[in-house]
Design a protein that fits this description.
2 helices, mainly beta, 20 strands, five-stranded antiparallel beta sheet, 258 residues
Amino acid sequence: MKKASIFLFALFVSLFANAQEFNKFPWDFPQDIKTNLKEGQWYLTCKSGYESNAGKVDLAKEILIYYAYQFKEMKDGLVDGAVPASMCIPLPEKQKAKKGDILLTWWQKGSGMCHAVVVDDSNPLTPKVNYLKNVSGEELKPNSFIVLKNGKMGPGAPIAYKTDDGRWRTGTAINIADGKVLIYGFGSKLKTAKLSDCKVLPLKPDYKVGDSVMSTFVDSFEDGYTVKEINLEKGKVIVTDKDGRDREKLLFEVVKSL
């Protein structure tokens, strides 16, 4: 009798686990949004991670790295037959960049999605950039970036979003629809938040050396930092924490207030 009970319990657990496998889009966000992607156009998405894991694991807990792809077709309601349009960031064609602009692109000698700052706009269609992550810069391909606008919410914008614990956390907006934001958050995991709980982080410093500011500890904004140095060409800021230690941050990981 005991063995039978254990078997039935194991069967129940197995059936319950299998029932969870079919949730291929666990986020509170529309899957099917309008996309104007054209054949050959670059876009950013987590296609490889989504395709291999959808329906098998809880995607809300999975690492989903964003890479660059060139669009071929819509198939079965999915971009290239692989991912919902809401998970994709189209990169506009013929964008022109100016020195000092912050861009969303990808590490073109490497792989994943990242932000970059323009350091040479001799050819605004193929600007030379410094990546904000600690990798060397390069000249970008044409049609391979979004020029972000200071204070404007949209795909690629660095944002702070408020979580249930009252903390402001950092992320990158993937898409905005129905008063919600799909967010590329800490640890390369997708999150959602109400648009009203999100703030676009400034791309141009609204602070100066010596100012008291908020900055990030892991992915949460905290008080108690002081600006020591601002390097616009690298897109970096050195702040001193309350214990007197210097920390290097991205431009948009430092704010006056939230």
